[in-house]
Amino acid sequence: MKTVWLRQERADELLLFFNGWGMDSRIAEHLFRESLSEGFTSDFLLCYDYSTLEPEQGFMREAGRYSRITIVAWSFGVWVAQHTELPPIERAIAINGTLHPVNEEQGISPQVFRATLSTWSEESRQRFNRRMCGTSEVRNHFSSMSPDRGARDQQVELERLQEHFLARDTKSCAAWRYDHAIIGGRDLVFPAEKQYRAWKGVPQTVIADMPHFPFFHFRNLLEVLACIT
Fold first, then answer.
1. pTM, to two decimals
2. DSSP code, position 175
3. Which CATH number goes with the domain that contains 162?
4. Residue 171 pLDDT class (50, 70, 90 cuts)
5. Is residue 11 a contact partner of residue 43, using CB atoms and an 8 Å limit?
């Protein structure tokens, strides 16, 4: 797992952002810039590239200094956060992901997952991005922060994620739980009806016209956090 500090100024609160599969720092950098202009004051640590679930050296020591830690996790990052050794968590928000990421009832169909993994290429990546974003307006927004990673690099990460899913029980032993789930009604990757089932009993915010990529509808981190404050 790669980690990047976007702000580390010994604030009282740390926001831990678990990005989606195949991403890099560009989405988080965009969200951080947009959040600063709205008065965001927390320190901010990004996690991405889940080829390994082990954070980089010093992660626990630095993250453990904070009295309050909030998690915002998107897509496969929702599962990864629950299977990463973390300091005590005060609150956590899941966006368009579940704790059963490859599952017929509560996640991505195993058949679809296997097909995505086996056929991943530059061409299929473009198709996936269209599916992830839905409309041309959202695609244009995503393209301004799309990851600078090759298709083969992303495929290797997905292969490692498959191994992680098989090796680890989907029921995490993490001491914390998600407090809120944000669900896109037009998510074609994690279909909304599967997310509803996965988050039964957990408070939910449903955005009817939001696709899998949520950061067109949520322009900054404060808008995300407002769902549970």
1. 0.97
2. S
3. 3.40.50.1820
4. low
5. yes
